[in-house]
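Exercise 7.
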Amino acid sequence: MENNQSVSFRNSTILYRLYGTGKPVILIHGFGEDGNVWNYIAENLKTNFCLIIPDLPGSGESEILKNDNDQITIDDYAEVIIQIIKKESAHACTIIGHSMGGYITLSIADKHPELLNGFGFFHSTAFADAEEKKKDRLKSIEFIQKHDSISFLKTSVPGLFADKFKQERYDEVEKFIDSIKYFTGEALIQYSTAMINRPERVNVLKTTPLPVLFIIGEKDSAIPLEKSLQQCHLPATVYVNILPEAGHMGMFEEKESSTGFILSYLNRL
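Solution. The predicted structure, written as tokens, is:
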């Protein structure tokens, strides 16, 4: 049974959902998403694990973080997750992050490794943005400011999916876009700025004693296969899984395989 909970962080209310019982597993969504992207995976894991699925600030039912003085950072979002861990006494938890959620996961692994028993990257990377990627994000910010968030999502989201999936199941892409039309430009710009400014954390992968999961889309245009593979040899213990038909949205494009990879990893911990 789903159980809705909340924490307060810097005067913002952050919502998260609890599913199932067992060892705690936190699933962190990415940019322009909310916790609902994990619905299929959650339904198939909840009989064996206690799943903690937040809506990041500005996503879903969670309020955006106030930006009074300094810019909001990836580390700020990580502190939100830490507050949830403390409230749920979910120490020795496993965290798996999708895309931007992976950046947040890595921040926690860097600053609070004692809270984890393992962590995973679902279409994500420990590398900082290259200059070209930063320019692309700045162009996205300019587009949102000139037009609106809905126009941005309609033009950008389809590119996250592999061509075959779009050709055969575009109705699912449209359904996903429709589910995130509520996003404000302020939230999307806050995320984009945080990603531009995030530090490289490759050294965390090199030094962590924790087992690390990688789920990679072979046809991912946002984080290309070659770039993803460059980091997979760095941890001492690693589980690498490639989705041959997926772009950047494996939880939709190859949901059964994605669930199986996560379940296999969790059972090995």
